[in-house]
């Protein structure tokens, strides 16, 4: 016989602070010291105009709250990618 299990609702691991894709792209270019051009296009009919996750369920069900600011987390990610790229580049040159 199958056990009945209560499923958790969808949980967003987010800060609850809205950030647009444009803001995120600008932040990434600045953090990476990149000269990349950010290109925009008109929204498509199925694009979501505004969305940001609510962190309340993560706190309620898992006692979890975001502690790392977005800019710091993005910086950590970009730095990790840059280290990985340098490492791979050195391996190819051998």
What does this structure look like?
It is built from 3 helices and no strands. The mean pLDDT is 90. The protein is extended and about 55 Å long. The chain is mainly alpha-helical.
How would you briefly describe this protein structure?
The protein is an all-alpha fold and 94 residues long. The protein has three helices and no strands.
Structural class: mainly alpha
Secondary-structure element pattern, one letter each? HHH
Mean of pLDDT: 90
- What is the straight-line distance between the termini? 59 Å
Biggest pleated sheet: none
Number of domains: 1
Beta-strand percentage range: under 5%
Number of strands: 0
Global morphology: extended
Low-confidence stretches at least 5 residues in length (pLDDT < 50)?
none
Helix-residue proportion: 40-55%
* C-alpha-based Rg, rounded: 19 Å
Helix count equals 3
Question: Could you outline the blueprint of secondary structure elements for this entry?
Answer:
Layout: H1 21-31, H2 56-62, H3 70-93
Highlighted features:
extended, 3 helices, 94 residues, mainly alpha
